[in-house]
Amino acid sequence: MDVVVPRVELTPAAAELLRRLRVQHGPLMFHQSGGCCDGSAPMCFPEGEFRTGGSDVLLAELEIEGVEEPVTFWISKSQYELWSHTRLIVDVVPGRGSGFSLEAPEGVRFLIRSRVVGA
């Protein structure tokens, strides 16, 4: 029997923060760009606020208890190629991340942890 391992998962702390952000901002999405400064920090936006295109891959539609619709998780194609062998775990840590991500005013930031697929 094959067990399907999710490509993206949330820690309980990340799921709880997303529930709070959903109440404040409506449907949500993530984008992981791999940019220079916050490369390990996925950015959280109101769904559709960040425009995705041909250079992005929809990696997951995260089902969160208490959130009506899935939270989409997009990643840039170039970053996807680098991380294709990993499972991404979205966590929350204290501190200030990007001012554009919805959690910034909360005094925390989302952070990606990863595991090699199959590990």
Please provide a written account of the structure.
- By secondary structure, this protein is of the alpha/beta class.
- Helices cover 18% and strands 36% of the residues.
- It has a 4-stranded mixed beta sheet. A 3-stranded mixed beta sheet has the order 1-6-7.
- A hairpin with an 8-residue loop joins strand 4 and strand 5 (71-76).
- The chain starts with 7 loop residues before the first strand and ends with a strand.
- The model has no long low-confidence stretch (mean pLDDT 87).
SSE layout and pairings?
Blueprint: E1 8-10, H1 12-25, E2 28-32, E3 43-46, E4 56-62, E5 71-76, H2 77-83, E6 86-94, E7 108-116
Parallel strand pairs: 1-6, 2-5
Antiparallel strand pairs: 2-3, 4-5, 6-7
Residues in β-strands, percent: 35-45%
Based on CA atoms alone, the radius of gyration comes out at 14 Å
Main β-sheet description? 4 strands, mixed
Number of helices: 2
Query: Which structural class is indicated by helix and strand composition?
Result: alpha/beta
- Low-confidence runs of at least 5 consecutive residues: none
The 3D shape can be described as globular
Extended strand count: 7
Rounded mean pLDDT score = 87
- Run of helices and strands: EHEEEEHEE
Binned, the helix content reads 10-25%
Instruction: Please list the strands of the largest sheet in the order they lie side by side.
Output: 3-2-5-4
Distance between the termini: 17 Å
